[in-house]
Amino acid sequence: MEEIFDVAIxxxxxxGEVAADRLIAAGxxxxxxxxxxxxxxxxxxxxxxxxxxxxxxxxxxxxxRTAGISGVTLNWQQAREYRDYMARHLDDSAEAEGYLRxxxxxxRARAVIAGPGRIQADGREYLTDHIVVxxxxxxxxxxxxxxxxxxxxxxxxxxxxxxxxQAVAIVGGSAVALETATxxxxxxxxxxxxxxxxxxxxxxxxEVAALAEAYLRESxxxxxxxxxxxxxxxxxxxxxxxxxxxxxxxxDAVVFATGRIPRTEGLGISLAGGLLDDKxxxxxxxxxxxxxxLWALGDVTGIMPFTHVAKYQGRVVADCILGxxxxxxxxxxxxxxxxxxxxxAVGLTRxxxxxxxxxxxxxxxxxxxxxxxxxxxxxxxxxxxxxLIDRRQQVMIGAWxxxxxxxxxxxxxxxxxxxxxxxxxxxxxxxxFPSYNEAYLVAFDRLGHSG
Length: 451
Fold this sequence. Notes:
The protein is an alpha/beta fold.
């Protein structure tokens, strides 16, 4: 008689791991499938190595702005060694052994769905009551004449670099593009950023885009808006790009941060009753369910491509499988870019609010003009906060900050948005002095006077 599992998880990135951990802890019989490394893109080639390696340039920037500190230098070899330690030296054997000790079965092979409750991998068929798809996404490399002649990198090549190049071009204006530019220019690489549109971070407020561009330029990045590649060629060991304006750019490598596609092709989603949208993302309901006994979480759903969302959906899926019928909500989820200073946003933008007919009021605050904390934190202090209010409901519906440690203090706005805390309560909050959180009170006091 064939062995039947309670749950099979295809893809063991952060979301898949969260679901597996919860289900195993609840006593479920679990089989996991991973054709690469347990921990996924985030642990080995994205979030963890990138944020680790960004800390050095950030600290040098902070030191340069702090009274009484001088002579801070970066050591690439030491930084690289710590990055590799944090990325487990691309070795997930300890993670695999941990799952085996806890009673899960680990299958090191690409899995495909053969039908409801049926998965084929490594020449075997596995039967299960529930299938959870957490296969994530893969980078998109654009096509143009000579694309096959240049040295093209994605995030994996960038965050496993042994030696730094002298010059790179980065194509894109997303969070990945900005963080990669910050890392490389911080370690002395000549960086040119080619953005196809007129503004960076196109889904954020225009003020955020303008501040992000200004700080990138200040750091030494050559930012070129409306930049595109017409063709490429190899010459003298370098990649030579002919740009849309006719100019040429010679670099050691071209980093593409031009979007990603879901890893669903050939997976057999439809055989288990699931549906894909026109871009290949799995369609799910408010429980992250795609069909009876079929679930999806993380980037493969196309809902919000963040590790913290994948982990959240992992909790939702596990709870639903365990009979708790949990509903996923996506209000108040922060979006952060780990540049210097950090960029953080949450909730709606004015454009998004206008599209759904919400009457809004927006207020922005320049932090050094109003607070003590920026001055105690650094010389030549920086920082801006913006909030967006629903006039009728008198609640916050959006916020952004471009400032030191914004990734941490954006969460006050995130909680307020997610739980619909009334402005009357927010105005009565007593923040620590000195802190960046005081900026919210300044913004609330300006409401009604912004015009």
